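quick one: 1-O-phosphono-alpha-D-glucopyranose bound model?
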Amino acid sequence: MRGLILAGGLATRLRPLTQVTNKHLLPVYNKPMIFYPLDSIIKSGVKEILILSSSDHAGHFANLLGSGDQFGVRLYYVIQDNPKGGIANAISLAEEFAGGQNLLVVLGDNIFGYDLKPAVEYFDKKGKGAIVFGVKMPTESKQYGVIEMDTQGKVLSIEEKPEHPKSDIAQTGIYMYDSRVFDFVRNLKPSQRGELEVTDLNNHYLKEATLECRLIDWWIDAGTSHDELLRANNMVAEKIAKGVIK
Ligand code: G1P
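yep, here:
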């Protein structure tokens, strides 16, 4: 399994904080935001990790994180020219890097405490399909992809920001894919907002009944608004104080 962190985008919702810097470099309590998803991937045992960002900011990530030696992993960097291409477009840029292996994708503003290691080991053994990670979020799920699943974890439906959600499970920005993901992305058409949607991508796996969902206990999408960024800072401070995360 190889890892991919998506740290591109324009982050217009966080202006002026993101006027001259990348959202994923903003502080969350005592570290730049990207440290949290990076740490989650490192803990999962994945050792080769690609960081995707814009040409404006790729050098900043390289300055901050370097070769990965300090973390015991190997880091690679790639540029997304079109920051509005969508998550699936961003994933497509990892094709060469993935080199036919499975891919763990994490959005660079996702902070969570879930241990991905057992899922990585399970998925590498299974070898086919995809896993999407969901979180229970009763009131806000309409802002996200919404996942309906059975008691075995098999996904029954995923809808992007539905008017009438079929469940209270929101799709997070954590995904595992087999090597066919790049062929599926090639078949996607841009959505109404002009993006190649991760929900459409996941629906390809759903159609062939190889999409599973794992529930994670807590998750925060730190980059969605000033309020969520503030909440992320407070939540991380609290989790560190309680020893839940370092
Ligand atoms: C994207 C996905 C959505 C998912 C969310 C998680 O939404 O399209 O399904 O729930 O990430 O952060 P976006 O933030 O692009 O609107």
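Residues 107, 144-145, 160, 170-173, 197-199, 221 surround 1-O-phosphono-alpha-D-glucopyranose (CB under 6 Å).
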